[in-house]
Each structure stands twice: as structure tokens, then as C-alpha cells.
From TrEMBL:
Keywords (A to Z) from UniProt: Antiport, Calcium, Calcium transport, Cell membrane, Ion transport, Membrane, Metal-binding, Repeat, Signal, Sodium, Sodium transport, Stress response, Transmembrane, Transmembrane helix, Transport
Subcellular location per the Swiss-Prot or TrEMBL entry: Cell membrane
Major localisation: membrane
Function according to Swiss-Prot or TrEMBL: May function as a sodium/calcium exchanger (NCX) and participate in the maintenance of calcium homeostasis. May play a role abiotic stress responses.
Protein name: EF-hand domain-containing protein
GO cellular component, one term: vacuolar membrane
Gene: LOC123069233
Annotated EF-hand domain residues: 300-335, 340-375
Pfam families per record: EF-hand_7 (PF13499), Na_Ca_ex (PF01699)
Amino acid sequence: MAIRRQRRAFPLVPFLVSLLAVAAYGRLISDGMPATPSSSVLASPLSSAVLRLNSSSPATAAAEECEQTYGFLPCTTTVFGNMFLVLTYGFLMFKAATFLSAGSELLLEIMGPGLVGGLLLPILGALPDALLVLVSGLSGTKETAQSQVLIGMGLLAGSTVFLLTLLWGTCVVVGKCDVGENGVAIDSTDTKGFSLTGSGITTDVQTSYAARIMAISVIPFVIAQFPKMLKTHHGERLAILLALIASFSLVLGYCLYQVFQPWVQKRKLAYAKHKHVISGILQHAQKQALGRLLNDDGSPNENVIRKLFHKIDNDDSRNLSRAELHALIIGINFEEIDFDKNDAVDKIMDDFDTSGNDTVEEDEFVAGMKIWLHEAKQKVEASGAYSNKFVNDYHARTREDHDQLVDRSDEAVESVENPGWCIAKAVGYLLLGATICAAFADPLVDAVHNFSNATHIPSFFVSFIGLPLATNSSEAVSAIIFASRKKQRTCSLTFSEVYGGVTMNNTLCLGVFLALIYFRELTWDFSSEVLVILLVCVIMGLFTSFRTSFPLWTCLVAYLLYPLTLAVVYVLDFVFGWS
């Protein structure tokens, strides 16, 4: 489910100003097309400043020329000129991502999750990054592509690291609430300030599942890097091909999981309800003063179980019918959850009726109860003797599991008025966003490459730091706003979106990148870059996969990983000469 944002009117003025600025700037500073500026233009202060920048290094300007993208878009060899172009094209890519997101959300409102939420939204969300990765090595000679493809790798690594460090940590800070005695954040309560242990956020269990999927998504990186790990050149192209196949297979699997996830969640919810019914029956047996269900050594107390059977067997037939089981469930007050009692009876029959005669005999009941008690012992750790508190703890635990799986929507579902117009508007947003992405991805890559040449800063670091801000800023702002609502549900959706974005980077965008490497026969020489991606994904994946509460101090871990990744790449590449 995509994070929903309040849509605003299309800001035409900044968008048109950007386009006009590019056009005007191209006439002033284009190095690729000889042009004689008019006297009025030369007389303007801005033109004089720009021309001074262009002529600041006569020897370099004479020796170097840039090539205009599409033959008419501006280019320059100066630092500030390329910085202007990077910012301008970056803003256009930001607007493209905004339009794609707005169109996706409109379609989601009209058509619901299913195929739209599962297939279309993840792909559209990754489209700007995927196009930038594609154009980074698509054009030019093989040597040019090998040089520019570092920009694509920088974007891949930068987006993943940005989402899991700076954005993740910021969402923890803005979404923090007071942490209760049970370690769970209390919704909409933030009185402990910036206490590193007393405040934090809590997500639902599905969010930890999304984190596990994200951790699994690094497999293609490992496959592609495998020959380098063995320090051999044999099988490099085969490894790239296998990683390419694995990437798109994971994309397909992830999208199908998204499509069918509602059904999965319904099954999980039904299972949680069934476990809660089991714990309720066990607790009911304790309350009837029939005795302890477990002996001191933890073994089932068979005498007490048989007493429970005879108490339920109202007609003394020595077997339990569906009606008697139904009466038992009705007699137990399950006010805290709502469930189909006939369905609960069916599930109890499935657990106990091993003979298939549609009744539960005494020995079957004893055997089934022993299985239930064994599951309860696995769920709840008991210290010392198994007392009545053990069953109460199990009942409380199953209630928590149920609550974590319930879809507790805290927002009203809006009815869509005039769906035809909404569909047309959504398609318009999607086409506009896709067109801007396709048109300005290549110029942005060229501008980053030229800026790198002008400043002598490796293009990887320029794209690592700068491009993710352009392609992910729309989602980042929305995630921060959503997390600031300080509720478990909104935090869960926010972090699920973050993990989903990383998963698409590691699968779809990497697949596009691997396709470039394979079909253009480029060299895979990105050991340090792959290492930092694995480092961040594995650390954050393990950190977030097996817990749902994150105190405020965890944001410091995320923040520190960002400069650490830059330092690792710099040391490995420029000190140890990995690349």
C-alpha cells in the first residue's frame, strides 16, 4: 500500500521557469554549439558572470568541449555551469517522481490494491531510478559507457544507503512516542523529549516481514560479485547473467507477493484468531478449578484434561459433538475479538478429530490438548513450576499476535467521485511523469559526468550523494510527514514503504544495471560499492527483521552508517586500489 499524500495543484510556474531557464542557459553557455551572443546579452551582468566562468581556464576551455544532449540541450565544462544543470535537471526528475506518485495513488484509490498496488505501484516508484541507471551506460562508445556507468552504480548504492540511513533515522526521530513498560511505543504520546531509551517507535509484524524481504533482495549482488570474491576472471559473464535472471525473478516474485498479500494476511489473521480460541479454552479450563493443565515438570496433566472432556460432554456420550463444542465457545467470553464461531468449531474438529467421524472422542481430545499445550510451551517461556499464570500469559500473547495482524485502519476510506475523470487525471499524471523521466534522465547523467570532470570528484560520489535526493525526495518528504502522525499504523506503513523502495532498488534497478553490463559487455568492477550496499542492507535487515520496537538511540546507528559507507568506498578504492 502506497503512502497516501494530500495532493496539491500542479505547480506550473516553477516547472515552466525551470524549462525556460534551461533554454536560456543553453543559449548563453553552450560549448557544443558555436554561437555569437548579441550585444544586449553580453551586456547583462548574469551573462558577464557566466562568460567569465567559461573563460576562467582558457587552456582547458580550448582543449575540452562538451556534447549537447539531443543536439540542442545546454552543456558546459565549468563547475558552476554544471552545478546549475544538475540542480535544474534534478528538480525536473523530482517533479517527475511526484507526478508518478500522484497518478499511482489515484489509480490505487479507484481500483484498489490487487494488481495496481502489487504490480504497478512498485515499478512506477522505481521508474526514475531505473531510467537513470539505464541511460548511464546506454549511449556512447564502450569506453564512455564504462566511465559513465559509475553514475548508475552511485545512484543504486546512494538510494539504498539514503533510504536505510538518513531517511530511516529521521522517521524514527519525527515519529517517536513515549515507550511504555512493555517496550511498546504509546500512540500520540511524546512527553519524554529526546530520551534515547524512553522514546521510540513501534511497527507491526508485517513491517518486519518487509525488512526480511529487503534483506533477501541482496542475493543478486552476491551472485554478481562471486567471481571477484574468488579472485578469478573465469565465469564473470555467467555470474552477471545469473544475477540478471535472479534480479528480475525477485522483481516478479515480490510483485506477486504484493498482489496476493491481502489473502496471505487474511490467512494469518484467521490463524491468529484460532490460536486465541485455543488459549481461551485452556484459560477456561483453569478458571473452572479443574486443576493445573501442566505438571511441575511441564508434562500435560492427563487427569485434568479428562475432567475437562467430561465437563464439556453434556450428554455423557463419551464424545464431543459440534453442538457441544459450539456451546463451549459461546460459554467462553471472547468479547475482545470478533470471529466466526462456526469456523472456530471447524478448526477445532480439524485439530482433534483424527478418526474423521465428525465427533471428538476422549482419547482424541486428550491427544489434541497435549498438542495444544506443547505449542503453548513453545510460545511462552515458563520459569520454575508451570502455574496458572502460564496459561494466562499464553492467552495474552495470542491476543497480542491477533492485534498485530488486524487491519486497524485509522483513516476513513474515501469514496471516489467521478471515477472516469479520476482515471483520466491519473493517466495524465503517469504519462507526464514518465515523459519527464525519459526526456531528462540522459541530460542529468551527462551533467553529473561533466560536473565530475570539472571538479575532479569521482562521479560515483557525486551521484551517490546528489541523485538520490532528486529521485527520492518526494517519497522522503511524504514518509517524514506520515511518520510525524506518531501512530503505530502510520509508522508501520512508512517503514514498509522504505523497505519496499530498497527492495525495488536491489532488484529492478540492479536488473537494469546488470543488463547494461551484460549486453554492452562492460566490466563488473564495483567491489567496494557492492560491499557498502551489502553492509547497510545486512545490518539494517538483521536489525529490523526480528523486532518491532525501536528506541530513539537506533536512529544514531542509522545516521552513522551514512558517512561510514562513504569512508569505506573512498578507502577501498583510493587507498587499497580495489577499483
